[in-house]
Design brief:
elongated; about 350 residues; alpha/beta; 15 helices; five-stranded parallel sheet; Rossmann fold
């Protein structure tokens, strides 16, 4: 992974390149931003640039030396990725990391630890990592990845150099997808809209042959609930949770799929449908909708909602996203959402 392959994060990449070129590499970084925006990919690109034996004048890794190849394959002894065990990053994992940091790099200039989902550090883990941040070895670089930096101790945040990741625009996503995938333009537009500014999700969707099939199943389930009795909301919520739990990461993707991340993708699909229904309600059939393939189904749905109810439904879906990101029980969050977005006409 190299910086040149990072999309829509020019400010973050520029800041990291500048650290390398000016020889001002910090011992700890906090990469913060929405899920799927490229934090994992950028962390690996940064690690590659730090230990590359043939870096470019711009501060990027070459992508082809032995160090770059080992990092790309996950086999480099000097670059480790720490992922949660279940719902938490445990004290045992932090102790193992601290033990490894006691040894100098095997072949690179730096020993890099990338801590995925740093939001899952428990109190013991945070106190343990804090000791490392207070007195880090000269060769150590820790990169904490977080969707919610406020969940980390202020003392940890203050000892990290913060790098912010933003959501990409639909136009940026479509351009990125166009450069890597041979998809029809309508599909590019749909994938970009469903990914909600997350390049990682967009690439996973485009790589996943089952994405469009899952999308169809999800839409039909929501349509059946919409046309049926309210109690179907419980079954629909369980179906969505089941689909989310079965989805896997695309081959070669550094982004680790989680139940929460998969649910966010599903919720973004539902959100895009409700935004289209709102557009149709306000502007009629001339509205520019994202989900062109479902327009004939969405038009009559707009007739059963008031504009106020559609606005409230969009807010309810966005609130459900926040609940899922905040580790609220997914089933409960989905069930409450289907109660909130029920048609009022």
């Amino acid at each position: 992974m190299i910086f040149a392959n990072i999309y829509a994060q020019d400010m973050a990449v520029r800041a990291l390149k500048s650290c390398i070129k000016k020889n001002q590499v910090a011992h700890a970084y906090l990469f913060t931003g929405p899920s799927g925006t490229g934090k994992s990919s950028t962390a690996l690109a940064f690690a590659s640039a730090l230990n590359c034996t043939n870096p470019t004048p711009e501060g990027d890794a070459c992508g082809s030396c032995l160090s770059c190849s080992r990092i790309a394959s996950g086999e480099d002894a000097d670059v480790r990725v720490v992922r949660p065990e279940g719902n938490q990053t445990t004290i045992e994992q932090m102790r193992d990391m601290i033990k490894e940091l006691g040894y100098a790099p095997f072949s690179g200039k730096y020993k890099v630890f990338i801590i995925e989902q740093a939001d899952t550090l428990n109190s013991s883990s945070e106190n343990s990592i804090l000791k490392v941040l207070e007195e880090p070895p000269a060769y150590a670089v820790l990169i904490l990845l977080s969707c919610n930096q406020s969940s980390l101790l202020p003392t940890i945040r203050s000892r990290c150099r913060t790098v912010r990741f933003r959501q990409a625009s639909d136009e940026e996503l479509e351009e990125a997808l166009r450069s890597r995938f041979n998809l029809p333009e309508d599909d590019l537009r749909i994938v970009a809209a469903c990914s909600r500014g997350a390049v990682g999700y967009a690439f996973d969707m485009a790589s996943d042959s089952g994405f469009m099939e899952d999308r169809q199943v999800i839409f039909q389930a929501v349509k059946d609930w919409y046309e049926g009795p309210p109690v179907l909301g419980l079954q629909t919520a369980e179906l969505l949770r089941s689909i989310a739990s079965e989805r896997k990461s695309a081959k070669g993707s550094p982004e680790v799929r989680t139940l929460a991340g998969n649910l966010l993708e599903i919720l973004d699909s539902i959100l895009s449908w409700y935004e289209d229904i709102l557009r149709l309600k306000v502007s009629g059939e001339s509205a520019r909708v994202t989900n062109l393939d479902y327009q004939d189904d969405l038009i009559p749905m707009s007739g059963r909602y008031s504009t106020a109810k559609l606005c409230a439904s969009v807010r309810a879906i966005m609130e459900t996203r926040r609940y899922v990101q905040g580790n609220i029980t997914p089933q409960l969050a989905l069930e409450n959402m289907f109660i909130a977005i029920r048609p009022d006409l």
